[in-house]
Amino acid sequence: MNREKLNQILLIDDDEPVNFLHEMIIKSSKLTDAKIEIKMLAQQGLEFLKSQSEDGPLLIFLDINMPRMNGWEFLDEFESLPSELVDNTIVVMLTTSLNPDDKSRGEKHPTVKKFMTKPLTKDGFQTVLEEFFPY
Asked: Tens of pLDDT along 22-45?
């Protein structure tokens, strides 16, 4: 995965106040000028991704527990998208789930690059950038 710059961040979470908080944390961090896209449902996130070019969102913060389609179901669908998009996207599970099975599953899932607890913090966001987008 050779990236010079983070182009886009996709927040997928059904909790509007959490999305607002995460957007403010990302913007106020001034660590990136990437465009931020917010989707309240996993299906909306997939539809958005399908409409993008192969260099679409490069960083996805994904919740697990959502109505209709949860984060795990999103990942199953996401993996069927064009490989150029999947291979150039970092997926971070960002959740309040206290279920140890979720954490274990996330850490073992090949598409999930990091598993973090909500809410996202400036330090947590900076850690993700340093780990996956060191430019």
From this structure: 999 999 999 899 999 999 999 999
